[in-house]
Amino acid sequence: MKPTPSKKLASLPPYLFVQLAKLKAQAEAAGQSVIDLGQGSPDLPSPANVVEALKAAVDQPWTHRYPQSGGLPALRTAIADWYRHRFKVTLDPDTQVLPLVGSKEGLAHLFMALLEPHQTVLVPSPCYPVHYNGVVLAGGKPYLMPLSEEMGFLPDLRKIPPAVAKNAKIMVLNYPNNPTGAVLESNLLLEDALNFSQKHGCLIAYDNAYSELTFDSYRAPSILQIPGAVDRAVEFHSFSKTYSMAGWRIGFVVGNAEAIAHLAKFKGFLDYGIPNFIQQAAVEALHGPQDYVSDLCRTYQHRRDAMVKALGEVGWEAPKSRATMYLWAPLPKKARRMKSLKFAERLILEHGVVISPGVGFGPHGEGYMRISLIAPEEQLAEAAGRIGAFLDRLK
Ligand SMILES: Cc1ncc(COP(=O)(O)O)c(C=O)c1O
Q1: Based on the domain organization, do 203 and 314 belong to the same domain?
Q2: Number of domains in the chain
Q3: Looking at the predicted structure, is the pLDDT value of residue 243 above 80?
Q4: Is the C-alpha dihedral spanning 123, 125, 127, 129 positive or negative?
Q5: Statement: residue 19 has pLDDT above 90
Q6: Same domain for 199 and 233?
Q7: Which of 227, 258, 287 is a domain's end point?
Q8: Are residue 156 and residue 139 in the same domain, yes or no?
Q9: Where do the H-state alpha helices sit in 30-116?
Q10: d(Cα 71, Cα 83) in Å, to the nearest integer?
C-alpha cells in the first residue's frame, strides 16, 4: 500500500520557505555564497539575560519533566503583567492568557479547535501563510479579503458578500502586517471588525506578532484596547520577533476566555506545551529590562533605511515600512512583466540572493517581493549590489 496524503494536504503546494530553502541549497551546491533575506528568521542573538535565565532553569531538574499544556502559572502572570504595562489592558492570567508553542502553531490549532468542515474563515491576501494553510488543513474554507496598496493594505469589509459574512466563523487580521509591513493609522478597522463580528457572530483572530517591532515612533495598538473586544477577539503574540527567539518556539494568545478554553482543551490532546526551562526564560524576557527591544527596533530601522537607499541606487524603489522586519516592494520597473516566483528563482540561482516572491503569500501578493532585513548592513548592501547586477542583465 502506498501512503497517500489527505485531500486537504494534497491541495496545498509545499510550504514557501521549504521551497526557498531547496533553491538556496541548489545555489550553494553550485558554489554561490548565498545571502538569505527570505524567511523572517531574526539573525540577532536572543537577549543575554534571557539566555542566562535559560541556563539557570536547565540546572533545575524539575524543568526536565513534561510541561503542562496550559503553561506555567508564573508565565501566565508575567504575560498579564506585560500586557497591562504595555497596553493598559487587564487580563485574568488563568482564563484569558495561554502560552503557545509558537504563535504559528497556536493559530493552526485555533482553526482545528473551532472549525466544522467547510466553515468559512475570512483571511487577508496576501497573508502570513498559516492564516490560509492552517484553515485548509483544519478542513475550513478560506475566503480571501484582498489587501491592496491603494487601500493601505487594509481589507474592505463592506465588500464581503452577506452570504459569506453570515457563515464566517473567524476573521483573521494582522497589523503590523506580514508581508506588507502596513500598520494601522487609527482604530477604525479594529472597530469595524468588532462591529462586523457582533453582527455576524464571528471571532476575530488578531495576529499581533510584530506589535513591538515598529519604527519612526509608531506604536502598535492591541485590539483588546477597544472596549468590548475581549468578548469577540483573541490576540496572538510571539517571542520570536520581539526577543529574537524564533528557534525557542514560544508565543501566547490572550483575550476571549471561551475561545482560549477550547484551544487549551485541544492542545491538551495534541501537544505537551513549551519546555519548562524555556517558559522560565520567557518570564525573564517579559519581566527583565526592555532596552533590548528598543535597540532591536533601532537596528532594524537603520537596516531598513540602508536597504531602501541601496535598492534605490540600483533602480528599485521600495517603500519604507513603519513596522515589521520586511520591505514589501513592487517588482522593479525592469522586471514588471516577470512573475514574482520566477524573479525569486533567478535571483537565488544566478546571483545567490534569497528574497520571497509575493505570490507565496497569496494571489494578491503577485507583483511584489518581500525582503527580510535579517542581515547586517554590509550584507544588505552586497545583496542590493547583486540585485542591481541582475536588473542590469534584464532587458
Ligand atoms: C504575522 C506572523 N504571525 C506569526 C508568526 C509566527 O510566529 P511564531 O514564531 O511565534 O510561531 C509569524 C512569523 O513570521 C508572523 O509573521
Answers
A1: no
A2: 2
A3: yes
A4: positive
A5: no
A6: yes
A7: 287
A8: yes
A9: 48-58, 73-87, 103-114
A10: 17
Q: DSSP E strands: which ranges in the chain?
A: 35-36, 97-100, 120-125, 141-146, 168-174, 203-207, 233-238, 251-255, 326-330, 353-354, 356-357, 368-372
Q: Which residues of 14-38 are buried (b: 16+ CB within 10 A; e: fewer)?
A: eebbebbeebbeebeeeebebbbbb
pTM for the model stands at: 0.97
Coil, strand or helix at 252: strand
Residue 344 · residue 34 · CB < 8 Å:
no
> For the segment 312-341, what is each residue's pLDDT rounded down to a tens digit?
999 999 999 999 999 999 999 989 899 999
99 alpha carbon to ligand 1 midpoint, in Å? 14
Percentage of the chain surpassing pLDDT 70? 100
Binding-site residues, ligand 1, Cβ < 6 A: 40, 102-104, 128, 174, 178, 207, 209, 238, 240, 246, 251
Distance 122 CA to ligand 1 centre (A): 18
Q: Hey, CA dihedral for 240, 244, 250, 253, is it positive or negative?
A: negative
Domain boundary at 244, 262, 287, which? 287
Same domain (yes/no): 265, 283: yes
What pLDDT sits at residue 251? Answer: 98
Please tell me the distance between residue 245's alpha carbon and the centre of ligand 1 in angstroms: 11
Pocket residue to mutate for ligand 1, from 79, 104, 127, 173, most atoms within 8 A of Cβ: 104
Question: Quick one: 392 exposed, middle or buried, by C-beta within 10 A (0-12, 13-18, 19+)?
Answer: exposed
Ligand 1 centre to CA of 123 (Å) is 15
Q: How far apart are CA 365 and CA 126, in angstroms?
A: 5
pLDDT exceeds cutoff 80 at 306: yes
CATH number at residue 127: 3.40.640.10
- DSSP string computed for 186-199: SSHHHHHHHHHHHH
Banded model confidence at residue 1, pLDDT cuts 50, 70, 90: confident
Domain extent for 255: 48-287
pLDDT tier at 18 (50, 70, 90 boundaries)?
confident
Element (H, E) at 261: helix 257-270
Q: Is the pLDDT of residue 16 over 90?
A: no
Instruction: Decide: helix, strand or coil at residue 171.
Output: strand
